[in-house]
Write a structure and sequence with these properties.
Layout: H1 3-13, H2 15-24, H3 27-57
Helix pairs in contact: 1-3, 2-3
Length: about 60
């Protein structure tokens, strides 16, 4: 699976919890959103490192 697809899948998996939190006020969904965003942050950092390493390997 491509890294971009992983990011898309993670964001899409959070959609229902975003709706529950913002539209219905479900605070447990807010906790799941925060956890998912932390996972997204970690994944983004891994991708940034991978891109940087590939860029530097080409020099």
């Amino acid at each position: 699976m491509s890294r971009f697809a992983q990011v898309k899948d993670l964001v899409m998996s959070l959609e229902a919890d975003f709706e529950k939190f913002y539209d219905k006020g479900n605070s447990a969904a807010g906790t799941r959103v925060r956890g998912g965003l932390q996972s997204l942050k970690t994944l983004a950092q891994e991708i940034r490192t991978e891109v940087q390493n590939k860029k530097n390997a080409g020099k």
